[in-house]
Amino acid sequence: PLPPKRPLSSFFLFKQENHEKVKKQHPNARITQLISMMAEQWKKASIQEKQKYEGQYAEAKAKYEQELIEYQNKYGKIKSQKSKRNK
Predict the structure, then answer these.
(1) What is the pLDDT of residues 27-55, one digit of tens each?
(2) What does residue 39 show for φ and ψ, rounded to 5 degrees?
(3) How many CA atoms, within 13 angstroms, populate the side-chain half-sphere of residue 17?
(4) How large is the C-alpha radius of gyration of the chain?
């Protein structure tokens, strides 16, 4: 079985939640433009709003770390994989 996946960062959680809303506001924008807009929104977001996503990330990270420990106890350490870029 595959090891557990790393959790999404707080920005990616924000992006995931706001993608459709931004896409509806800018239906003709390219994906790169949408991501730039969301990155700008993230920069301007209040500390309270960012804390919401950082809290979600912290919870997901704790769960991931626990799942990783359980996986390693059952299957051993995960072998590092070479990046596809270096091949």
Answers:
(1) 999 999 999 999 999 999 999 999 999 99
(2) -65, -40
(3) 14
(4) 17
